[in-house]
């Protein structure tokens, strides 16, 4: 399902540094220049180890690389992966559809009151979701929807 991902020497160096600092193995490293951040994809179940007690591993990593560091837990299932990526506590459902032209689209359902948190400041979480969904599962579009609340007429 996942296509082969090519890493630059810098990304390999970052992943090695990540492993030395956290003790967890990074599956992937994405440098997002636009948002001035480095996103590491960690294997399933390794998130706690990667973060460290009180976030100490992430803090020391951010001090070393002088950029924001974000972590995402990998999952073979694209719906679960997107849910992890966008905060599984706030995501109620993820549907993956194949459009008529053969491209894949993910529709993420969230509570209308939590949509802003899920999308992130200036859409940074939504952008991260699009980037990684494309990179891993060839999903070309990620829509973050919130169902309109039904009002009951009395």
From TrEMBL:
UniProt cross-references to InterPro entries, sorted A to Z: KH_dom-like_a/b, KH_dom_type_2, KH_NusA_2nd, KH_sf_prok-type, NusA_arc, TF_NusA_bacterial
Subcellular location: Cytoplasm
Molecular-function annotations in GO: RNA binding
Principal subcellular localisation of the protein: cytoplasm
Gene3D superfamilies reported for this sequence: 3.30.300.20
Cited SUPFAM superfamilies: Prokaryotic type KH domain (KH-domain type II)
A Pfam short name: KH_2
All residue ranges annotated as the NusA-like second KH domain in the record: 78-141
CC annotations in GO: cytosol
Biological processes annotated in GO: DNA-templated transcription termination; transcription antitermination
Residue ranges of domain KH type-2 in the record: 16-72
Keywords: Cytoplasm, RNA-binding, Transcription, Transcription regulation, Transcription termination
Its job: Participates in transcription termination.
Family indicated by similarity: Belongs to the NusA family.
Protein name: Probable transcription termination protein NusA
Chain's gene name: nusA
